[in-house]
Amino acid sequence: MPFEHRRSVVALALIASFMVFVDSTIxxxxxxxxxxxxxxxxxxxxxxxxxxxxxxxxxxLGAGAIxxxxxxxxxxxxxxxxxxxxxxxxxxxxxMLMLNLARLVQGAGSxxxxxxxxxxATASATDEHSRHRLVSWWAAAGGAGMAAGPLLGGxxxxxxxxxxxxxxxxxxxxxxxxxxxxxxxxxxxxxxxxDLAGMGTATAFxxxxxxxxxxxxxxxxxxxxxxxxxxxTVAGLVAFVLVERSVSKPLLPLKLYGDRGFxxxxxxxTLLNFAFYGVLFTMSLLLQQxxxxxxxxxxxxxxxxxxxxxxxxxxxxxxxRRLGRPAVLAIGQAVLTLALLGLAWASTxxxxxxxxxxxxxxxxxxxxLVPTMTAQxxxxxxPDLHGAASAAFNTSRQIxxxxxxxxxxxxxxxxHNLTTGFVTCTVVAAAASIAGLCVTAxxxxxxxxxxxxxxxACDS
Length: 460
Fold this sequence. Notes:
Elements lengths: L2 H20 L8 H7 L4 H29 L1 H21 L3 H28 L4 H32 L3 H21 L12 H24 L4 H23 L13 H31 L4 H7 L1 H21 L1 H22 L6 H27 L6 H27 L5 H27 L16
Helix pairs in contact: 1-5, 1-6, 1-7, 3-4, 3-5, 3-8, 3-15, 4-5, 4-7, 5-6, 6-11, 6-12, 8-9, 8-15, 10-14, 10-15, 10-16, 12-13, 12-14, 13-14, 13-16, 14-15
Membrane topology: Multi-pass membrane protein
Subcellular location: Cell membrane
Organism: Kribbella jiaozuonensis
């Protein structure tokens, strides 16, 4: 591949990673305007975040197989076009229903875009060292997007309105698609069967679960739609397990969960995202609706949380080499627990700066935990299962984030008493972090080895 093409492919992969992850945090600062301009209810605001997460998580399990089947270039372009077009629909939405349906499609585009971008970038590497460096850059671009989301969103809302947050994807996406068509080479396609039944049943399970959690507080748990969603959750889970046991190339090899290290990592990732994204959602509403702060100021206040994640990511590997993975996990979860309790206490003050101080250890500890958990999920299984383990771990995290937003929304309460509700939310988040710490302790216990039973001596 010519040097100019290699450089273009890497740049496009970094842009794609940034775009996908910036959309996981940028919408948080638009919530107050969405509530005012589109008359959004709390449940509809939760869907504006979870619709994206839902389709992203459901399709992420099969995204690698889709990229192999379509070819990485075709999957990348398809994902980019879907993401850009759905962003345009979001920007033009006249109702929350239209916005949330477009967010659902946007998440599907992200699920296609992200893994194919990584495949194309690493295919341009000339040796193993450059491949590792490209993966690090790709991950750093995603971290930068996640960190920049609230600040970028706040600035766009201040300059224009909430529509600009989605329109900016169109401004970036169209030139990127043209650039990709002209300079991105094709990567050899690999024959691989798609587990469509697995993808369908996984979507049914995740979608039913998220719908029930979001809609039940408003509709009631005995509402027919909520009961139907609960039934779909159970049926989807049972069907998914049966399908994955019967196919030769499952999306999610169930034997992964037979390994204590991987199962622990998946549980830890779910609990971490449950706490992190739940707090991010509720704090955005507290600052804007409860404290009357502008989206731009809110985005600036989030910088200690999101900005320190990328810095802590770089510190994770050296600390793990020095202290060991279980110690880094335990320290990170302990610090996160104390910081969340500190945030609960700080939110009762009329001043904002105590909350900002509490965000510093939350951001740093979260940044330490994610790469350490990721490394644990991969190290626990055989090399031929690394791809499946990575997809399963990231899907678990996405589900945790969706459940966190769905759970914390009702706990936050009404606009007249957001502070009390936020304290409840942060205490629940701290409890989730304690649960993660318990999982770490159990996973670190030495494995019991069976004691051989000596054969009985025969009587002579």
